[in-house]
C-alpha cells in the first residue's frame, strides 16, 4: 500500500512533466512551421496553457468535479447510515473522514475527489444509497476511500487536464495552419526540406497526440480501478460486497443524467450506457472481469 502511494506521487510528477514537455513541443513546432521560427508565440502560449491548467486541476479540480455533477453536501443528520459507514471505514483505514456529497440521480454510482486525503470528498448517487445494502454500499465506499489513500485522485486529475491541454493546443495548431502558413516557411530562402519535414511532423503530431494521450489516460484509469477494487476488498475483508454492488450497477445499466466525459474516469463504474463506448475507449475495465477478480480474492 505504502509503495503504491509513493509510486503514485512519483508518477504524478513524471506524468505532469512529460505532458508539459509534449505541449511545449507542439508550441515549438507551431512556431517553426507557421511563423518560420521568427517568434516564440506558440511556445509562450503552450507554457502558460500547460502550467495554468495544471495549477487549476491541482488546486480546484475537486470543486470543478463536484460542481459539474451537481453534487450537494450531505449533512450528518440527513443520512446517519451513510455517515456511520464512512466513519467506520476511515477508522479502519486510518484516513481522515472526507466530506460526503449527494448526487440526485437514480443511477447507482459514486466517485471520490481531492488532491490529498485531508481535503478529500466522496460523492454518492441517490441510487447507490437507496438501492445498495449496507455490505454493498460499504464495498463502494471502501473502493473510493482506497482511491483517496492511494493518491489516485490527484494522479488522474493531472492526467485528465494534461490530455485536455494537448487536445486544445493540437486543435489550435491544425486550425491555424491555413491562416498563418503564408507568413512563415513559404517565403523563406532555403531550408525547404526542413520546413516540409517539420510541417509533416507537426500535422501528424497534432492529429495523433490527442488520441494517444487519451488512450494513455484510459489505460491508467482502468488500472487504477483494479487496484482500488483490491484495496477496498482488503479494507472491508468482504470482497463479495463490492462484487454484488458492481453486479447491480451492471444489471441496471442506467446512464447518469449529469454524465460527462471529463469526469467519467472518476466514477466507480462508467456513468454512460455500457453500449455507447467500445472497450478500447472505456474509462473502466469490464465489470465482469472486476467481479471475477473480487470473487477470486474471497475464495
UniProtKB/TrEMBL annotation:
Pfam families, sorted: Peptidase_M48 (PF01435)
- What EC identifiers does the entry list? 3.4.24.-
Gene3D superfamilies, alphabetized: Metalloproteases ('zincins'), catalytic domain
Similarity comment: Belongs to the peptidase M48B family.
Keywords assigned: Cell membrane, Hydrolase, Membrane, Metal-binding, Metalloprotease, Protease, Transmembrane, Transmembrane helix, Zinc
Question: What enzyme category does the UniProt record give?
Answer: hydrolase
Report the subcellular localization.
Answer: Cell membrane
Free-text cofactor note:
Binds 1 zinc ion per subunit.
Which residues are recorded as binding Zn(2+)? 143, 147, 225
**In what residue span(s) does the Peptidase M48 domain sit?**
78-296
Source organism superkingdom: Bacteria
Which cofactor(s) does the record list? Zn(2+)
Q: How does it sit in the membrane?
A: Multi-pass membrane protein
Protein name in the entry: Protease HtpX homolog
Q: Which GO terms describe its molecular function?
A: metalloendopeptidase activity; zinc ion binding
Q: Which GO terms describe its cellular component?
A: plasma membrane
What are the TM regions of this chain, as residue ranges? 12-30, 42-59, 155-174, 194-216
Primary residence = membrane
Q: Which residues form the active site?
A: 144
Query: Taxonomic lineage of this organism?
Result: Bacteria, Candidatus Magasanikiibacteriota
Amino acid at each position: 500500500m505504502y509503495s503504491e502511494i509513493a509510486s503514485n506521487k512519483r508518477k504524478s510528477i513524471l506524468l505532469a512533466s512529460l505532458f508539459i514537455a509534449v505541449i511545449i513541443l507542439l508550441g515549438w513546432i507551431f512556431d517553426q512551421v507557421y511563423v518560420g521560427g521568427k517568434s516564440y508565440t506558440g511556445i509562450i502560449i503552450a507554457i502558460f496553457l500547460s502550467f495554468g491548467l495544471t495549477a487549476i486541476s491541482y488546486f480546484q479540480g475537486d470543486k470543478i468535479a463536484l460542481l459539474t455533477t451537481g453534487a450537494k453536501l450531505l449533512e450528518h443528520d440527513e443520512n446517519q447510515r451513510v455517515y456511520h459507514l464512512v466513519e467506520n471505514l476511515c477508522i479502519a483505514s486510518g484516513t481522515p473522514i472526507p466530506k460526503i456529497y449527494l448526487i440526485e440521480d437514480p443511477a447507482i454510482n459514486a466517485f471520490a475527489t481531492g488532491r490529498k486525503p485531508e481535503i478529500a470528498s466522496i460523492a454518492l448517487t441517490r441510487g447507490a444509497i437507496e438501492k445498495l445494502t449496507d455490505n454493498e454500499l460499504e464495498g463502494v465506499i471502501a473502493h473510493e476511500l482506497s482511491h483517496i489513500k492511494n493518491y489516485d485522485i490527484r494522479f488522474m486529475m493531472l492526467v485528465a487536464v494534461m490530455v485536455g491541454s494537448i487536445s486544445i493546443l493540437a486543435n489550435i495548431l491544425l486550425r491555424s495552419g491555413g491562416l498563418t502558413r503564408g507568413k512563415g516557411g513559404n517565403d523563406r530562402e532555403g531550408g525547404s526540406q526542413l520546413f516540409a519535414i517539420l510541417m509533416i511532423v507537426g500535422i501528424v503530431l497534432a492529429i495523433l497526440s490527442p488520441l494517444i494521450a487519451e488512450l494513455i489516460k484510459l489505460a491508467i484509469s482502468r488500472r487504477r480501478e483494479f487496484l482500488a477494487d483490491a484495496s477496498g476488498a482488503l479494507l472491508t475483508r468482504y470482497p463479495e460486497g463490492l462484487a454484488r454492488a458492481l453486479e447491480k450497477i451492471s444489471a441496471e445499466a442506467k446512464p447518469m443524467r449529469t454524465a460527462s466525459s471529463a469526469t467519467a474516469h472518476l466514477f466507480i463504474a462508467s456513468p454512460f450506457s455500457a453500449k455507447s463506448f467500445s472497450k478500447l475507449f472505456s474509462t473502466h475495465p469490464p465489470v465482469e472481469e472486476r467481479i471475477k477478480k473480487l470473487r477470486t480474492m474471497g475464495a
